[in-house]
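Hi all, long-time lurker, first post. I run a small reading group and we've been trying to get comfortable going from sequence to structure in the token notation. Rather than ask abstract questions, I figured I'd post a concrete chain and ask someone more experienced to write out its structure so we can walk through it together at our next meeting. Sequence below, copied exactly:
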Amino acid sequence: MAKSSADTSKTNTRKDARLVWNHSTHLPGLIPILERLCQEDGIQTITPGVIGRVKGHAPKMQLRVSVPIRGGYKIIARHGKTVQEVFILTILAQDKLEEIIAIAMKQ
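-- Answer (accepted) --
Happy to help. Here is the structure in token form:
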């Protein structure tokens, strides 16, 4: 028995990554960037984490790949004197992820 065309079309559709909302507060402007990242191929899950304060001042939003974690990378988001961890589960290499982050921040 042959598969219906509806079954094969499901395998060809692109699925966006999941953005986890487990905190009530986020850095201003961070969520739109993360939503754009969710639309990229190779990214599976994005989880914003702990918010903290730092001594230095970042006048505009910065996202920097920090360390590899199991299945992805930890990203540090900074704006003003506030910092937030973001965990990205991905199959992408670090340099490709950095390119995608730069593009998402420019949009």
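A couple of things your group might point at:
The two ends are 47 Å apart (CA to CA).
Residues 3-12 have pLDDT under 50 and may be disordered.
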